[in-house]
Design goal:
Blueprint lengths: L2 H9 L4 H8 L6 H19 L6 E12 L9 E17 L4 E6 L4 E5 L13 H14 L7 E7 L9 H17 L6 H16 L6 H8 L2 E5 L7 E5 L8 E7 L8 H17 L10 H6 L1 H8 L1 H25 L3 H19 L12 H13 L4 E5 L6 E7 L3 H12 L4 E4 L7 E2 L2
Parallel strand pairs: 3-5
Antiparallel strand pairs: 1-2, 1-12, 2-5, 2-6, 3-4, 6-7, 8-10, 8-11, 9-10
Helix pairs in contact: 1-3, 4-5, 4-6, 5-6, 5-7, 6-7, 8-11, 10-11, 11-12, 13-14
């Protein structure tokens, strides 16, 4: 559809119902999304010309809901897409060149006939584009060129994984333009993971990409890493009576790499005691029978982190069951249990090297006080600094946000919802 026509139809409200579904918003808030799409089309036209035949794509950020640091031990996780996303206005071209201009960043230009790994592109978004095109090419598709303008409202440094959303966005575009939309959401996620691992140069699991691509709540069993089991969890969060809040504790992630790296290393040291590589291969009963000997070899923190792994891994399955049974009270209880386990056993709420910087701990204490037993809260993501995840009753939301931001500052508490749609073509 020509870009001028697309803008006209957006302004007339022709896509309001679809936007309301994707973004989990009332009709009163649709105006924001209309304006956002129209502005994106205008920016595309300035860059790439008017009256092009365009489509608009979207890929959401994600939140880790259950299974804190269980994925790298090939355990279970529960994740979900959120109603913040990266959108792209896209037009196919007759050339082999892929041009992607992301708001606030230089143009990425990739020749789709040159898809070899380039070390000079490591850690750059162009590598992700090249890697995704390469993988689809390996799957037997002929990849051509296209022009795209992207803009994102996925919060940077929030643990909502803006990079995975970008990967899923590019994968969804390529799948639509050149693959006849034949590939599944899971395959698009795996393509994104491949691009990040091989072309971007960063080892990562599949959780972020899968949650973004599939959408809604999903559970993943990582035992078989080549073929992880990804299942969508049927639960309508919009009817729960709760809002999801991600709270930015304003912590500094600098110098925390050793803290993050120590968790999988210590868990693996326990697995090695049993001649295994990952904790998913270790029998829990055998672990508890041998704790005395394990302590001597690995130290106590590794043991405690393993206790967390076994408990949180099982807890994910209970959380999934609670959602399927529409038992949100049980789900909240399990979320809090997971948070306490992360604090006591996993020990990723603050860095032992920065004991005077405990923003996550302070925020958890505030959540417990302000929610008065009616919501749920836990450290979000990797931990040590960063964000806290809360589920807040809607009738307490305004008061909760005000109290949190009185302590942590304006715009520290981000009110979100679980998005029912993953990577998708909006128009």
């Amino acid at each position: 559809m020509l870009s001028s026509k697309v803008k006209e139809m957006i302004a007339q409200g022709k896509y309001d119902e679809k936007l309301s579904h994707i973004y989990v918003c009332s009709k009163e808030k649709i105006a924001y999304y209309r304006e956002r799409l129209i502005n994106a089309v205008n920016n595309f036209e300035e860059l790439f010309g008017t009256n092009r035949d365009i489509n608009i794509f979207s890929a959401p950020g994600r939140t880790e809901v259950g299974g804190n640091h269980t994925d790298h031990q090939h355990g279970h996780v529960l994740a979900a897409s959120v109603n913040l996303d990266v959108i792209a206005v896209v037009a196919a071209s007759e050339s082999k060149i892929i041009n992607v201009k992301s708001e606030g960043y230089p143009m990425d230009t990739v020749d789709s006939s040159d898809l070899v790994v380039k070390e000079q592109e490591f850690n750059k978004s162009s590598s992700l584009i090249r890697g995704i095109a390469s993988k689809f090419n390996d799957l037997g598709y002929k990849i051509g060129g296209f022009d795209a303008y992207t803009t994102s409202n996925v919060l940077k440094g929030s643990g909502l994984s803006s990079s995975a959303a970008f990967e899923v966005l590019i994968g969804t575009i390529v799948n639509s333009l050149f693959c006849g939309e034949k590939e599944s959401a899971l395959k698009i996620a795996q393509v994104g993971q491949y691009a990040e691992n091989v072309y971007f140069g960063k080892p990562c699991g599949l959780m972020d990409q899968a949650a973004s691509s599939v959408g809604s709540f999903i559970t993943i069993d990582f035992k078989d890493t080549e073929n992880p089991k990804v299942k969508k969890v049927d639960y309508n969060f919009a009817e729960s009576g709760y809002s999801l809040c991600i709270i930015d504790t304003k912590g500094d992630h600098a110098d925390l790499t050793p803290d993050y790296a120590a968790i999988p290393a210590e868990m693996k040291s326990v697995a090695e005691f049993f001649g295994k590589e990952y904790l998913c291969e270790v029998d829990e009963e055998s672990f508890f029978k041998n704790i005395g000997e394990i302590r001597k070899k690995t130290g106590d923190r590794a043991v405690l982190r393993t206790v967390h792994y076994f408990d949180d891994n099982k807890r994910v399955l209970k959380e999934v069951s609670a959602l399927k049974d529409n038992n949100f009270d049980e789900f909240k209880k399990l979320i809090i249990e997971s948070g306490y386990s992360s604090y006591m056993y996993l020990q990723n709420v603050f860095s032992p090297s920065h004991i005077q910087q405990q923003g996550v701990s302070i925020t958890l204490a505030l959540c417990e006080k302000y929610l008065k037993g009616k919501g749920a809260y836990r450290v979000h993501g990797g931990g040590f600094a960063g964000t806290v995840q809360t589920f807040v009753p809607k009738n307490m939301l305004n008061d909760f946000v005000e109290k949190i931001e009185n302590v942590l500052g304006k715009d520290s508490c981000h009110v979100l919802s679980i998005r029912p749609v993953g990577g998708t073509k909006i128009i």
